[in-house]
Amino acid sequence: MLEINDLSVSYGAIRAVRGVSFSVGKGELVSLLGANGAGKSSTIKCIAGALKAAGGSIALEGKDITTANPEQVIRAGLATVPETRDVFPDLTVAENLMLGAYIHRRDQAGNRQNLEKLHTLFPRLAERSNQPAGTLSGGEQQMLVIARALMARPRVLLLDEPSLGLAPAIVERIFEMIETLKKSGLTILLVEQNVNQALSVADRAYVMRLGAIATSGTAEEIRATSDLSAHYLGG
Ligand SMILES: Nc1ncnc2c1ncn2[C@@H]1O[C@H](COP(=O)(O)OP(=O)(O)OP(=O)(O)O)[C@@H](O)[C@H]1O
Ligand SMILES: [Mg+2]
Questions:
Q1: Domain that holds residue 34
Q2: How far is CA 206 from CA 154, 192, 219, 231, in A?
Q3: In this structure, what CATH number is given to the domain that contains residue 85?
Q4: Which residue of 19, 95, 156, 176 could cross-link 78, Cys pair, CB 3.0 to 4.6 Å?
Q5: Strands 156-160 and 14-24
């Protein structure tokens, strides 16, 4: 479904991602783990078309999207929720959601239908439809950006640290929702620092360290890897 091959990302002279290869199969939930600065977000941003690859390739359903811009990537079927969790604060929740449906703007009936589905998944957003997005709590804003990404009707969803800075109860809710999305058949790449939570929902995981993949395996295998905390805390 998603194939990353020998991907490199640079910021000027700084090489943040060094020859990373991994894949996510159809309907799979794969987690990308690693310490601060390991290169997870750079990888995600590059797949999303927000950063240019310095080398390597990215393919979505067999189609090369290495040089695609963000809109082309979304049109190809891949939506991203960046770690910055940006909402348009002065627009209402409903208006924010409709912006996510930009590529389907000529299919208003389809958008309304999708919105109804998302309101079932995120009842809190339904209740707050007419509220400015800037007045939502952190957890609600996270749900909004996930729902907004889903308005593009992606087949693959990239989530960059959805649990960051949220209270445990909200994190729990977000992970339940991620499981629901997986059950619906969505293919998911989940970046997390919250290793235990991530491994509890993931089929497989890759651990990044210093811009490269240090370890990979099934969630079980990664959980059993005794030096996992070293990968983490050692950066
Ligand atoms: N805009 C930038 N300019 C220069 N260097 C950058 C930039 N963004 C990231 N880097 C560097 O690239 C490396 C990887 O950063 P990245 O954000 O991809 O890590 P991460 O794994 O997502 O970390 P975190 O868990 O803290 O989000 C780091 O060394 C970082 O300092
Ligand atoms: Mg990051």
A1: 2-233
A2: 22, 11, 9, 11
A3: 3.40.50.300
A4: 156
A5: unpaired
Q: Which of 31, 36, 45, 81 to mutate to test the pocket of ligand 1 (most atoms within 8 A of CB)?
A: 36
Which tens digit of pLDDT belongs to each residue from 100-147? 999 999 999 999 999 999 999 999 999 999 999 999 999 999 999 999
Give the tens place of pLDDT for each residue, 203-218: 999 999 999 999 999 9
Average pLDDT over residues 136-161: 96
170 Cβ partners below 8 Å, 6+ apart? 138, 139, 142
pLDDT at 103: 94
Q: Which atom in ligand 1 lies closest to the alpha carbon of residue 45? A: 18
Ligand closest to CA 210: 1
Please list every protein residue whose CB sits less than 6 Å from any atom of ligand 1.
Answer: 11, 14, 16, 34, 36-42, 83, 193
**What's the mean pLDDT in 44-70?**
97
With residues binned 3-state (H G I as helix, E B as strand, rest as coil), the percentages for the chain, rounded to 5, are 40, 30, 30
- Give the pLDDT score at 235: 40
Quote the ligand 1 centre to 9 CA distance (angstroms): 10
Please give the Cα distance from 161 to 125 (Å, whole number).
20
Sign of CA dihedral 39, 15, 85, 190: negative
How would you label 48-74 residue by residue, b for 16+ Cβ within 10 Å and e otherwise? bbebebeebebbbeeeebbebeeeebb
Distance of CA 66 to the CA centre of its chain: 17
Rounded Cα–Cα distance for residues 161 and 147 (Å) = 15
Q: Number of folded domains in the chain? A: 1
| Residue 107 neighbours by CB under 8 Å, 6+ apart | none
